[in-house]
């Protein structure tokens, strides 16, 4: 199973350390992920090697989508003030295409944990991370999925922090103090059915509202 749990993003480290304390570092470790070259990152890396200026790199990467730049259409380069006939630019585009999907570096997954019923060092390598008080399995999270490891994702959501801070602000304005503030109680006191909220949603007045703010 792969379990996702949402927490406030400002308190993610508390949750991470709590997991280590609860299950011990023998049986809990964060997972890693292979960061690959995609679009802008491929162009910037190759462009630096080829000696392009910062301005040229900015213009070039501004044209890039997930899969790079469509360099078969020279008009794209001309549109941002670059010379389509510049052989060095063409070479940058060709080489950036070639390294799409190549591994760039290994990173700690933002919140992925493996939990094990037996000591992890019997089934996987564990190492200290560069971040303080973290230990990791230096394998890509997708490989761990294939191996059937039990994984939990500790997802830090900024919107949950924003909600808690908004409720705290309302409480403080009403009571003059935060001493008695309980975010769970404050959430429970919010009316479940508010016609004004549904009217706003029906009018697509949802900018800043988590998960329903986009045009889609």
Description:
It contains nine helices and six strands, in the order E-H-E-H-H-H-H-E-E-E-H-E-H-H-H. With 216 residues, the protein is α/β, with parallel strands linked by helices. The protein has a six-stranded mixed β-sheet. A hairpin with a 6-residue loop joins strand 4 (127-128) and strand 5. The mean pLDDT is 87.
What is the rounded distance between the termini? 30 Å
Spatial arrangement of strands, main beta sheet: 1-6-3-2-5-4
Number of strands: 6
Write the element-wise H/E pattern from the N-terminal end onward. EHEHHHHEEEHEHHH
Portion of residues in helices? 40-55%
> What is the general shape?
flat
- Counting DSSP H or I runs of 4 or more residues, the number of helices is 9
Low-confidence stretches: none
**SS strand fraction:** 15-25%
Average pLDDT rating:
87
Q: Over the alpha carbons, how many angstroms does the gyration radius reach?
A: 24 Å
Q: Main beta sheet: strand number and arrangement?
A: 6 strands, mixed
Q: Find the structural class using helix and strand composition.
A: alpha/beta
SSE blueprint and pairings:
Blueprint: E1 2-8, H1 12-23, E2 28-36, H2 39-49, H3 54-62, H4 75-79, H5 87-98, E3 103-115, E4 127-128, E5 135-140, H6 141-147, E6 151-157, H7 158-175, H8 183-188, H9 195-202
Parallel strand pairs: 1-6, 2-5
Antiparallel strand pairs: 2-3, 3-6, 4-5
Helix pairs in contact: 2-3, 2-5
In a nutshell, what does this entry contain?
This protein is an alpha/beta fold and 216 residues long.
Structural features:
alpha/beta; 9 helices; single chain; 216 residues; flat; 41% helix; six-stranded mixed β-sheet
